[in-house]
Design a protein that fits this description.
Oligomer: single chain
Strand order of the largest sheet: 1-2
Number of helices: 8
Length: 330
């Protein structure tokens, strides 16, 4: 065999010994594994709304990701090995498994970091646009603050006008026998509770009117200051939600208190109609007219049960009025 033939034979044999190309299959497997990992890390574990926390990444996410990431790595590698490497290059199996594991675990840690970064950039861009939008209506901040201040002052003044009367009426709903010591006490409590219920009804109606007036003033301020779409999209939903929530909260407190007053008045009405036919002896009552006790006991028990709701009432006057100020950082 000539020298040229030997050289050609060596070149041919080296071409035959060249390992098959497997990296495209590995890249495809890596993409699938990374996608599954991102889906688990972002979709299943979710993201906190607040700023990125490294301790959460290391202590919580990594621990929760160990088993799922191991399953993803092993599952994708098994498909890659059985479907491709086993027939083409079985010796690359361990190498590709190690690489897949690194990619999967790295993705599980980097995905939330990247997402937080994207969110931060989006937030900064939105903040810049919002600042520019508020600059185009320079007087709007002052107008909204003035509307909110006037609304709070009106709320406080209206509640202060009846608060002492309401607290007294709340205390008068205690109808224990030791308290109802005479007919005069019954008449006094009956009159005070009835007046408080009437004044509370007027206050509740006025509260709703004031809320609607405040809402209308805010909407007019937006139009008057020619606020841009971004400002309107922020302020209008806030004032609508604020009005709706405040009405619901006040309506709940109003209905509860009126129910307590109505039950107390039912008890006091029975005692008022039975005038002269009962007397108090400390912790018990003596009735000289048949049937009074039978009517009184169920009403008394119901009034005592419902009265406990008063301790859970929230008499906070003003709503948060988040519409009265720009978002933080603007």
């Amino acid at each position: 065999m000539t020298e040229d033939s030997l050289i050609a034979s060596h070149v041919y044999s080296r071409r035959l010994d060249k390992p098959p190309t497997t990296w495209p299959a590995f890249v495809a497997a890596a993409v699938v594994a990374a996608s599954l990992t991102i889906g688990y890390s972002i979709g299943f574990l979710g993201l906190r709304e607040e700023a990125f926390d490294l301790s959460d990444l290391i202590n919580s996410r990594f621990l929760f990701s160990i088993v799922p990431c191991g399953v993803i790595s092993l599952g994708v590698w098994t498909l890659l090995y059985v479907g491709f490497l086993r027939w083409r290059a079985p010796t690359m199996g361990p190498i590709y498994f190690n690489l897949l594991a690194v990619i999967v675990f790295g993705t599980s840690l980097l995905a939330p970091v990247v997402m937080h970064g994207v969110r931060h950039v989006e937030f900064q861009v939105a903040q810049a646009k919002m600042r520019e939008a508020w600059k185009q209506a320079p007087a709007l901040k002052g107008d909204l603050a003035l509307i909110a201040r006037n609304a709070r002052q009106a709320d406080i003044a209206a509640w202060d006008a009846i608060s002492l009367e309401i607290r007294e009426a709340d205390a008068f709903t205690d109808l224990s026998p030791s308290v109802l010591d005479s007919q005069a006490t019954v008449d006094k409590r009956r009159a005070r509770i009835a007046k408080a219920a009437k004044d509370l009804e007027a206050y509740n109606a006025d509260y709703g009117r004031r809320l609607q007036a405040t809402r209308q003033a805010v909407l007019e301020a937006l139009v008057r200051n020619k606020a841009g779409p971004l400002v309107v999209e922020r302020v209008r939903p806030l004032v609508e939600d604020d009005t709706r929530n405040a009405l619901a909260r006040r309506a709940g407190a109003y209905e509860t208190r009126q129910t307590v007053y109505a039950e107390a008045l039912d008890v006091l009405d029975i005692l008022a109609k039975a005038r002269g036919s009962w007397e108090s002896q400390g912790s018990r009552m003596i009735f000289y007219q048949p049937g009074v006790a039978d009517r009184l006991v169920p009403e008394f028990n119901e009034a005592s049960r419902i009265r406990n709701r008063l301790r859970y009432l929230d008499d906070k006057v003003s709503s948060p009025m988040l519409w009265s100020r720009p978002p933080p950082g603007v």
